[in-house]
Amino acid sequence: MTIGGKRVRPEMAKVVHERLASLRLAPDAAIQALPESQTTQLELLGEAVAITTYRALAPKGQTLVVAQAVHHRWLGITTEVEAAGFVVSQRGERIEAPEELLWNYT
Q1: Percent composition of the chain: helix, strand, coil (DSSP 3-state, to 5)
Q2: Structural domains of the chain, ranges and CATH numbers in brackets
């Protein structure tokens, strides 16, 4: 979507995927030590965007890690959300999160 001629959503997706790329490389202990949620504010193309990293319990004792970018538009009436994530198996494998696990974050 275009906001005042700016394409914020592609930048949001880039930040989400960069955040996940670094988290995928983190040791299991570092993943488990993440807070349940942590939000930082960024400015992308002059627009305020909240970037949140979530850690949650997934099925079968796995850990879900999600990165989410939220951009409130038009006085908060509409919102753009970009989210992606992965699951850490009990063996430490990083597996792309199935869509249904991301529904609460999109």
Answers
A1: 35, 45, 20
A2: 2-105 (3.30.1300)
